[in-house]
Sequence to fold (445 residues):
Amino acid sequence: MDAVARQATRYDAIQGRFDPWLLGIALALVCLGVVMVGSASVAIAEVEGSSPYYYLIRHSVFICGGLVLAAWIARTELKTIEQHSWWLLLACFVLLLLVFVPGIGKTVNGARRWLNLGIAGFQAVEAVKLCFIIWMASYLKRFSEEVSATWPAMLKPLGVAVALVVILLMQPDFGSSSLLLAITAGMLVLGGVNMPRMFAPVLIGLPMLAVIAIAEPYRMRRITSFTNPFDDPFGAGYQLANALMAVGRGEWLGVGLGASVQKLSYLPEAHTDFIMAVIAEEFGFLGVVLVVGLFTAFVGRAFWVGYKCVEMRRHFAGYCAFGIGLWIGLQALVSIGVNLGLLPTKGLTLPLISYGGSSVMMTCVAVGLLLRVSYELDRAQRQVALRRGESAAATSGRSAYIPPTAQPLPSMASAARVAVSKGADATRGTSRLRQRIEPILGRGA
Fold:
């Protein structure tokens, strides 16, 4: 028992390491975001009568807060997080409903999505995305076989997502609603859902989303202006028209850092939703490729970590990695697509780059959770390697020992050689004995 306990203690003492690729790419995106928020927000801050560095300072404070939270969750065991998955699901509904409470929720730009925290506002849906991903990962781990075999197990997470979407549409927040449904569908597919069975909810959901999109006049104007924003460049197409002018002006290498013209009160939300247009103007096609490449590398690495976790039967960790990769990848895809005129305008920020306290902080927390997943994966791989090494050493030691009964019998020739050798040894021994006793007894005749 003592040996077993010592062996278990030795395994537990093994430490992992955070994935250097995930950490390096995330830090590169954060640093790029700090630079671009500082560049894109100067004119906006001056128009509002604030210091030119007002938004840069606030963004830096949010980044520091997000890094602290990321470090905290990166040091928390995944099994502890998994134990609280039901409470996190309950927190999703509580946070989304709190925005409707007078004195707690507040309206910004016609949408009631924010919680008034006194010193700053907090967009509840940003926390809901991460909490829902954690619950979804726990659910898929517990019911992976049922999800792939039965309708009720597959429809339950879809029903939870639809309930959250209904509350989001009441705020209203169509962009986050679509993103949450896409994350749910993606995690179900990666969790092994039966694909033909998945088609039915998709075929029902897509027309419903289309009806919801065209039901509101302002959403319909966004869709129609997306096809040709220059038909109404000072009305419905104003945002996209100015974003496209910024992108076109950047050409191949851009006009240089800080030299953007569109950010000078022409491009709305230049430091938040349309920061990618400013990047395209100041760094050109090369800057766009760099940002797309960083997000592609980050999402690809997150999926690789998730795949390795599932391969080692660490399903909760793997599904968390898949969910975070889907979240950041889909949100970055939509944000970049909107800025380049590939998708209709949506109020989604560019993760880790755009200004926004709640978005930046919760994305940092998500990255911290992903780093924790990579840490425990590396630790598990080291433990498995140690066990295999010890097993190989034990097997090698047993093969070197051959019991006496298992030793091969000598051949007839070798037996004869052994007998002759033993006879010669006996003769030499008798001769030596005679030499010792003859001086005493005398020689015989």
